[in-house]
Amino acid sequence: MADPHGFQKYSRHDKAHRPVPLRLLDWHEVYEKQDLTDLRQQATRCMDCGIPFCHDGCPLGNIIPEWNDLVRLGRWREAFDRLHATNNFPEFTGRLCPAPCEGACVLGINDDPVTIKNVELEIVEYGFEHDFVKPIRPSFSTGQSVAVVGSGPAGLAAAQQLTRAGHDVTVFERHDRLGGLMRYGVPEYKMEKKWINRRLEQMVAEGTQFRTNISPSVSDLQGFDAVVLAIGSTIGRDLPIEGRDLEGVYQAMEYLPEANKVQEGDREVSMIDARGKNVVIVGGGDTGTDCFGTALRQGAKSVVQFDIGPKPPRPRAASTPWPTFPRKLRVATAHEEGEYEVSGEEEKELVEKLGLDARVKGHPLGNRQWKTNTVEFIGTDGKITGLKGTLVDRTPEGTIPIEGSDFEIDADLVLLAMGFASVDRAGIVDELGLEIDGRGRIVRDENFRAEVPLTAGFRAPVFVAGDAGRGQSLIVWGISEGRSAAAAVDRQLMGESSLPTAIVPTDVPMRA
How far is CA 203 from CA 63, 207, 228, in A? Predict the structure, then answer.
């Protein structure tokens, strides 16, 4: 069992961050590598609870106490195998998941929870460094072929599971590179894309085939024995107010891919660049925060992020008691950078490279603004120059403006990051005649299968995984759904399946 006194001997210690002036000069990941002795102490804090609620907090059902204790004992190979038993890509979740498992950690009832996410990441990185990662090739071929449309977390997880089950799997991706939103939505400073490429090498060696630069039509999918649609929920929620058509107002997913293409070497300069501009981000979630950190690295004159909600409390809010995912004030690395005050000679290189001479010395680089609603974009000669907003309160009757709180703010670039409204219906979704529910999701049954009308002329079963069926969600849910959909496909083709099924998404309305 675990060390029963570990949580008493050691306090929580998160990974250190690289200094702000240094990390704003490049696009490398912001975290320092954690000392393994320190990491083992953090794993020792896990109490191996009689009822480990972290299992339920994790959509993948990761067996967290077991691999924590294996790390404590220095049994890295066993920890690596136990982690991969439930998670195909822990190097992705270890960097990008908001860690609902930590919100459910029993230690978190009256203490800081275990650093589960950090331990997870170091296990897989230790495995790569020590050559634990090998292709897992199927021992036989089923003679069945499966098309997976989309190469985000759900698509890649489904493809890897089905390939290992012996099926002939082809992944179709409409972009020039694989990875979905991990590739072109997540900034390089949060996850360097070499980690995606590294895992793709394993999948190619296992036998998964990939086709990029193609949005498959029904004719492209004819001949496959089953199809998995993992196309995401990619249509951004818009803000149809006066001035929306002004030049300089963009969706976040128009802006972020451009910055990533520069890092991939496809561009010298982003087609939508924040350098020297007053940037306003409308939306307080992760996508808006990604825009925040990106704009800072591009050398924005100022960055302001609007959140329509009230500022959360620093401790867990009473409305989200343990073991639910806690609502509390979170300071992302981008916000940490925004709070940094430029001053002194030691920042000379930063000032010169990012053009910070245009900023006010001794003041933060950027900030967040709470309870803020945007009501009008204003401009000159067809270009955005600012916006009008107001502070709001949330009431049982809805969001209402606070009297006398109207304001105007300069803006040369406005980024809309208010979440994603629906799946993209153009192309394969409309061709197959798939039903879309009121929240823009493809309707599917409890086995992840969508109903294809006979008029579509397509007879192979179609399954839906990830955000396309669930709606906008977390990377960990994408992998979970990809694994579960793969098991459903395998059962459909073979009559039974030994592939594991992750947590069934019972909280998502499905067609009976």
Answer: 24, 7, 17
